[in-house]
Amino acid sequence: MPLLLKMTWQSMLRKPLRTILVMMTISFAFAIFGLADAIDNAFSGGRDLSQTKRLITNHKVSMTNTMPIHYGDQIAQLDGVTMVTHATWYGGYYQDERNPVTVFAVDAQKYIEIFDELVFADEQKSAFLSNISGAAVGRAMADQQGWQLGDRVQIHSNIWRTKHDTNVWDFEILAIFEGEDTNTETNLFLIHHDGFDETRSYGNYSAGWFSIKVEPSDTKEQLAIAAEIDALFANSESETKTATEQSFLESFSNQYADIGLVLKMVMGTVVATLLIVCASTITQSARERQRDFAVLQTMGFRVPWISTWIALESFFTVLIGAVLGIVMAMLFAGRLKVVFTELIPEVTIGFGDLAFGLMISAGVGLLAAILPMFELSNTPIVKTLSRR
């Protein structure tokens, strides 16, 4: 076996430029494969919210339309509803429009109680709740922006303006909250709706959506409550659409799911083309050495041994390229998470994806060796040696 591995390595270096180019092409193909899978996972994956007992009510026409805040009081009177809170999309960015931040103006006390997966230190929680000019920032956002507790930051809005005709709000970071697990979204910036309402120039006493905590855990019972809520505001100026939180987020992500699918299909075509080209090159490299293999046969090396040599060379060439490509994909995925955090906040390549990629690389490597191995076992030595 040591001799076989040594010869495999030497044959890979027989034409180093070609070997390097093939590996680079394979690396590029698997980098594309890894990114496509990561992006598809980002669009289709996410936290399982099926057991959260929460409903979301938003305007029937569009998520961008607001509703009167007093809707929350009416919803709270319904049977099965235990708590209601509201929130409004701020449309924020920090310093530059290319640096968007997810800002919600919330009914802070109830919001924190309903979304109990957001974990606050007691002192920080008290400080945030007692100051309507303060803000609470998720750990992911604080780390990304380099913010610390006590920092004062100016957040611009693409939607709202203050009564002083500016789109800039000034906040002090009074709390930095964690998530109860790694799947909890902490790329958030929470501000008090009361303070926001006092200073915005229009849209006062309105909210973007209501988050409703309900008693039943059964989906059918939750949907019955959702129907009651929508019936409550039927034929009003601001009709509503209510769904379970899981359904709401799925419908929202489905707006981008087709993009992820198309992107994956296009990238898959590119990957397949590159791998076919590489497999063809590897096959040609082995066929060029048929005379060498025939000489080895005359020296006593058996066909199975030489076939194993051919297969190992092909396998290692593809495997090394695939590993480099997957490493590149992981690095690029981390960069995508930073750049496109608003659209695809969780861009990761899972263990299953890595294993699948390595299985593909092994398959391509072995397939590329099949034709030379077949020719080796079916072509007489004399005929092979007579070739020029």
From TrEMBL:
<protein>
    <submittedName>
        <fullName>Putative ABC transport system permease protein</fullName>
    </submittedName>
</protein>
<feature type="transmembrane region" description="Helical">
    <location>
        <begin position="354"/>
        <end position="374"/>
    </location>
</feature>
<keyword id="KW-1133">Transmembrane helix</keyword>
<dbReference type="GO" id="GO:0005886">
    <property type="term" value="C:plasma membrane"/>
</dbReference>
<feature type="transmembrane region" description="Helical">
    <location>
        <begin position="261"/>
        <end position="282"/>
    </location>
</feature>
<keyword id="KW-1003">Cell membrane</keyword>
<keyword id="KW-0812">Transmembrane</keyword>
<feature type="domain" description="ABC3 transporter permease C-terminal">
    <location>
        <begin position="266"/>
        <end position="380"/>
    </location>
</feature>
<feature type="transmembrane region" description="Helical">
    <location>
        <begin position="303"/>
        <end position="334"/>
    </location>
</feature>
<keyword id="KW-0472">Membrane</keyword>
<dbReference type="InterPro" id="IPR051125">
    <property type="entry name" value="ABC-4/HrtB_transporter"/>
</dbReference>
<dbReference type="Pfam" id="PF02687">
    <property type="entry name" value="FtsX"/>
</dbReference>
<dbReference type="InterPro" id="IPR003838">
    <property type="entry name" value="ABC3_permease_C"/>
</dbReference>
